[in-house]
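Narrative summary of target 7.
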Amino acid sequence: MHEPRITTARRAARAGAVLLVLSALALAATPALAADVPAAPEELELHAGADSSITIEWPAVPGATSYRVYRGTASGAEGTTPIATTTDTEYTDSGLSPTPIYFYQVTAVNAAGESARSGEDASKTPPPVGTGGNVPGVVSGNSLVFYCKDALLGGFDWFQTLTGWFPQVLGSSGAASPGGRVVDMAYSAEGTMTFNNVVVPAAGLYTLDWRYAFQGGLFPGVNNRQMGLRVNGAVVTTTQSFPITGSFEVYQHSALQVQLRAGVNSVQQFAVTDHGLSRVDELIVTPASASSPSGPANLRATPGNASATLTWTASASGAPTSYRVYRGTKSDGEATTPVGTVAGGVTTFTDTGLQNGKQYFYFVDAVNAAGGSPNSNEVTATPAAGTGGGGGGGGGGSLSQGHPATASSVENAGLSAANAVDGSATTRWSSAFADPQWLQVDLGAAHQVNRVVLNWEAAYARAFQIQTSADGVAWTTVYSTTTGAGGTQDLTVTGSGRYVRVYGTQRATQYGYSLYEFQVYGT
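Modeled conformation, tokenized:
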């Protein structure tokens, strides 16, 4: 807000006297200035629909009351007339042709005026159509080698790079596949790569080994890209670890063990975020001679004074000889070298020498002589002076993680309420597409609550309350807003109760309410 400039008027009387106009009167007569013009929207995302539509999404802009969408069929040619005005943070542009390339910009608007335009983004329509997935594996010793260039690809969007339209299959000098062709899974948050003809002679335990490469690219600081693995329609893990190789042409391996049935099997690698893998060259399938551990589960982090204490549930199988703890300062930014290792019978680790007020990210894996496990869920902790370590959640620590959670509704079984309190930034709760909706957590006992952190997915709440309750029936509102902006909201509250809930009354999008994490802190 600009400060109003008050000028005191002076008038000379005929007799030479000077009349001063009182400042208070001048202030009263000065009209209030309007709100500032909002900032331009950032990071447009375009998704091509099979119905020849393109959906444009963008983060909410503080202070904006509406948005204008501009479109052209050449770069810089979006024109001066918007194709749409909306109060949502997404717009579906329907009835498009499959021939042109469409270019988009978005502006934010309020009573003070219209923002500068967003950066330009472009897309083709309809989305790329995958083919393949049925080429047999090549016999190599007792292994079968499947080349990723022959896989069935799905879930990709079009986007443009400096050198042209981004290819999902591209050349790589370090590739082992014929013709040096590999698959790039990066930037496609819903990307899948499927082999539907993995034929093995006998049912049993097999090692699935992916040959891959990546460096930072457009995700600086991301050191461990994680991918999901689905076998015969069932999800095996969403946390297979692919540590950075340091170069797009330096390849290494990430392997997990799975049960395959005799005859034909389907193996699918799928993205869990848009980080994805930059180069995926081969899938190598080999009979396993010994069992590696299953992944540790239910990782929890309790912040202390310059420390964080981690606890987890032991691997359910594979008899790990040790657990390795990895730390970073952003999601998927955990270093490739563990900060600590504990024996296979130990399920806790205290990380010391940390910086108070700084957020840290962790995951844990298990290892034995046969190999490593998938990662645990990822958790965060922010050490602070006056907090205590240990798994009890007291002294300002997290009270909600791992506790029972319920919701008014769920979009589907894979988006349950428990996902919002599991400490993972890659799982989420999502509600039905209607107002109102709520998500609540049972802290197990009455606590003083002083802080709530909401990590929203794109489907966030514009209007919501934070409420506490002693019995889960009568609720007290400790925070309320009608101008929620999504993202990560770190709220200071004052209240007490055994139950805490977020109660949404107005959605910001046409979808439901969706939270990656609902974190409650207190004593």
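The radius of gyration is 27 Å.
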